[in-house]
Amino acid sequence: xxxxxxxxxxxxxxxxxxxxxxxxxxxxxxxxxxxxxxxxxxxxxxxxxxxxxxxxxxxxxxxxxxxxxxxxxxxxxxxxxxxxxxxxxxxxxxxxxxxxxxxxxxxxxxxxxxxxxxxxxxxxxxxxx
Length: 129
Known about the structure:
Blueprint: E1 20-22, H1 23-45, H2 53-62, H3 78-90, E2 94-98, E3 101-103, E4 109-111, E5 118-122
Antiparallel strand pairs: 1-4, 2-3, 2-5
Helix pairs in contact: 1-3
């Protein structure tokens, strides 16, 4: 807040689906894609990189210059991640909005357009309520 950067960053995901899909299948594909992306980033972090002066300057500005070479050995079970995401939706821990329309049921069919916007709104309980 109070910065010139947008509150929400734009994030694009290319899905191999037709126009209509259930919300359950959409969330499943998104989780699979995100886990695959995480695993790719983990693999890239294992490599030691040579940084340009611009990359070093950017790292200094951000407070961390990362050359890679780290192996965090974090394993993600994709089926467990999918089950967790679906259960969290069912439990009301986050809402899903597709083109500004809230989605309420995992088995509802949603229609995606080429420029559809998807918003995940995570709910955080306040202490002392």
